[in-house]
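User: My instructor asked us to take a sequence, write out its structure as tokens, and then describe one feature of it. I'm not sure where to start. Here is the sequence I was given:
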Amino acid sequence: MKKLIKLIAIIIIIIIAILLVNYIRNFVILNKISNEGSRIFDSSNYHITINSKMINSDYNAVNEIYYKDNICLINTYVDNKLTEICWKNYLTDECITYYPDSLKTTNDFNDELISSIKDEIMLKNNKISIFNFIIKKDNYYIIKEKNQNSYFDKETGIFVKKEYNFEGEHNILDSIYEVKYQQNSVTDLDVKRPEI
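Assistant: Let's start with the prediction itself. The structure tokens for your sequence are:
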């Protein structure tokens, strides 16, 4: 009986040690990812391209975000056609959105896109438990969540891709969301107020 109790105690200690090591590992990886995301948005000059593709259709959307010295310009393309231009000067709060198809303009800005990409890059809304395992595959850390996989560059910690799976009997890849970054590449011409 004493041997059984010792064996159970050893198994419990091993399980706790594995969970603790996994928690520390997850904490280190997530901290690296969050810090790199913060570094990108602390910069006063960056360009982010977000490409969203639906797997079973021809739908393709691209958002190009240019940011330099408190001025932001977002070009949105759907199926390779420019559908929206958003511009904002954060110092003066002046903003404009232009829709080339209808030739209409509004005095608003798509702040939701900026905040959602920041949250994604910096893992603000992700709750990773100690029971989750962050997978290392090729050159990526992969965080698996229900119906989605988020990919982060293993070397830099930068968010690069998210795959969404269709909910159903089988997890079928439904859409891919890819992100590319460039820092210190945006010129004044890239963030010039649209002349409408």
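For the description part of your assignment, you could build on this observation: The helical segments are 2-42, 111-121. Try explaining in your own words what that tells you about the chain.
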